[in-house]
Structure formats: structure tokens, C-alpha cells
Amino acid sequence: MNANSDREYIDNKLGDVRTAVDDLRVTMNERFDALRQTMDARFTATDTKIDSIAPKIISDFIKWGVGLFVTTIALNVALVSVVLHVALREPPPSPPPAAAPVQPISTPSVIIQLTPQGATVLPAAPSAAKP
Questions:
Q1: Which residues of the chain have pLDDT under 50?
Q2: So where does this one cross the membrane (predicted)?
Q3: In this predicted model, what pLDDT tens digit does every residue of 44-60 receive, in sequence order?
Q4: What is the pLDDT at residue 111?
């Protein structure tokens, strides 16, 4: 082989490699463009879906939040009223005392024994002591 033919051979091979790399680059760019378009379409569809669902999610969240708030307030009011009712309850009034049977007031009769004047009464003698 001579130098010119070697150089042409190498140039041809290098040109073939460049052409192959350029074709590969173009093919990859086409694939990336197709993938990018597919992903953009999917992102657009997902964004549309999220945009259509977002108001429902927000309204459900608000509905549950308000419901939970109202329920909590109602339970707190009920609990406080029960606790206050139990804590501040007055004991039941005691029944009036049973009426005692009415007895007539009677004064004992007083017996006064007087000795006749001038007579002396000796106290009774003690009985004999028993052994």
C-alpha cells in the first residue's frame, strides 16, 4: 500500500465512522424528541387531572374540617355541662323529721306528807345485820 491509498482508506473509514455517529446522533435525537413529546403529553394529562380533582379535594377537606370543628365544639359543650351538672348538684333536701307522737303534758301529782304537829317521827330502825 502506498501512502495516498492508506490516507484515503483511513479518511474513508473515518468518514464512515463520522457518518455512523451522525446517524446515531440523529436517531437518538429523534427518539429523545419523541420521548419528550410523550412525557409532555403525559404531564399535560396529569396536570389536567390534578386541576380537575383539586377543587373536590379542597371542598372535601374544608367539609371535614368544619364538621370536625362543629363536632368538637358540641362534644365540649356537652361534656362541660355534664361535669358542671354533676359537680354543682345540690344534695337532695333531707326529709322533714318524723312528727313525734303528741303526748299531753302532765305534771306529776305532788304528795306532801306532813306529820301531825307535836308528834315526832323517828326514822325507821335499820334492820338487823345479817351474818
A1: none
A2: 66-88
A3: 999 999 999 999 999 99
A4: 73
Between CA 59 and CA 11 the distance in angstroms is 70
Say how far residue 59 (Cα) sits from the centre of its chain: 23
Q: How far apart are CA 130 and CA 48, in angstroms?
A: 130
Contact of 97 with 103, CB cutoff 8 Å: no
Rounded to whole angstroms, what are the CA distances from 92 to 76, 89, 95, 111? 28, 9, 9, 52
Closest CA to 52 of 63, 42, 44, 64: 44
Whole-model pTM over 0.70: no
Radius of gyration over alpha carbons of the chain, in Å? Answer: 62
In the numeric block, which cell numbers belong to residue 98?
Answer: 318524723
